[in-house]
Write a structure and sequence with these properties.
- The chain has about 350 residues and is α/β, with parallel strands linked by helices.
- The protein folds into 3 domains: about 150 residues, 3-Layer(aba) Sandwich (Rossmann fold); about 60 residues, no CATH class; about 90 residues, no CATH class.
- Helix content is about 50%, strand content about 10%.
- The strands form 2 sheets. The protein has a 6-stranded parallel beta sheet with strand order 3-2-1-4-5-6, with helices on both faces.
- Helix 14 crosses helix 15.
Length: about 350
């Protein structure tokens, strides 16, 4: 009996005690890295068109979609810079959104939003490793490059067609146009907002680039239009024709309207010869040489024009001579000038009559 008791005591004494769990080995939950997204609101918002109207009413939702879709691994705070009175933006009740009003300071109605953003981005460079910018303005390419040289990771968001120099200046680029659909912007309004300035400036669109742009909005059977051509025509209010260089031109009247009196009274064939001849005239020559060259080239096609008419075409199309090599494109630029000239004359006549 004694031996049994001693053996039990020995077993209890030799048993290893259980160590209490150390709290030092427990890994605390990690928080998301933070960074500030600077928003050029004047540029991002745009005019009071279809897209701008929706953005004004749902700006907070739009920023939330940008955060969720592009930066789920970050804790992003937004700093919005813009003329809030002009943009008609109301205050956003969100602790992650700060709105900075930038009143107009210059004679051409520019605000100080751009320099303020650049200065504030540089002020934060020592405290952060990531920097964000939401703009379509190519003027910010330099500051993005500079921040990268400082070892910072830059995140650029755009929401319209932007310059590739701007996009390539950032470490990462994100397209914010699909989030416009999330806040119920119409695809047609988005396409019109981006393509209208190009048409006014250049007079045509590139087929493959335009189709690739619209393909992101293809949706169900090209948004129900059945084809890219129908979607583009509905968005811009005109049908287009494609030439051998894959350029899309708005379909216009082949001959000038009868009420336009600012242009010479030439036949359709004579206009075609003039525009095709201008495509081969060198722009570095003197105006008189360009005028005589145009007359000689027209004469080679059995079309006779006076020196005054040749000078008229050279002076009106001078910015495009030597640069535009398609006669249809030159014709588009010329008829745009004619229409604007007639509009100015009509306005001046109306003012004169009202004064009388």
């Amino acid at each position: 009996m004694f031996k049994f008791i001693m053996a039990s005591i020995r077993q209890i004494l030799l048993k290893k005690p259980v160590k209490p769990m150390s709290t030092n080995n427990i890994t605390p939950p990690t928080s998301k890295p933070k960074f500030v997204m600077f928003v050029d609101l004047d540029n991002v918002m745009g005019d009071e068109d279809g897209v701008g109207t929706v953005m004004r009413s749902r700006l907070d939702d739009y920023l939330s979609y940008i955060q969720q879709d592009h930066f789920p691994e970050f804790d992003v705070s937004f700093r919005l810079y813009g003329n809030l009175t002009f943009l008609k933006c109301e205050a956003i009740a969100n602790e992650n959104v700060t709105m900075i009003d930038t009143p107009v300071r210059t004679y051409n109605h520019k605000t100080e939003a751009d320099p303020m953003i650049m200065v504030d981005m540089l002020r934060l460079k020592d405290n952060v490793s990531n920097a964000g910018l939401f703009t379509n303005d190519c003027d910010f390419a330099y500051i993005l490059n500079e921040l990268q040289l400082m070892g910072k990771t830059t995140h650029l968001v755009t929401n319209r067609i932007s310059n590739k120099h701007l996009r390539h200046s950032a470490s990462h680029h994100y397209d914010g146009q699909l989030q416009l659909l999330s806040i119920k912007c119409r695809v047609e309004d988005i396409i019109k907002r981006d393509f209208d300035p190009i048409l006014k400036r250049v007079g045509c669109l590139h087929y493959y680039l335009s189709r690739g742009y619209c393909k992101r909005f293809k949706g169900s059977d090209w948004q129900g239009y059945g084809s890219f051509d129908q979607l583009l025509a509905s968005s811009l209010g005109t049908a287009f024709t494609r030439d051998e260089q894959q350029q899309l031109y708005p379909i216009t009247e082949p001959t000038p309207p009868e009420h336009l009196q600012s242009n010479p009274a030439l036949s359709h064939h004579e206009y075609d010869v003039v525009f095709s001849s201008l495509c081969t005239v060198a722009s570095h020559q003197k105006l008189t040489v360009m005028r005589d060259t145009l007359r000689n080239k027209c004469h080679q096609h059995d079309v006779q024009i006076s020196a005054d008419i040749a000078a008229h075409f050279v002076s009106k199309l001078l910015p495009f001579i030597g640069k535009v090599k398609q006669s249809q494109k030159l014709a588009t630029h010329y008829w745009q000038w004619v229409k604007s000239s007639e509009k100015i004359k009509s306005s001046a006549h109306a003012i004169t009559v009202s004064q009388q």
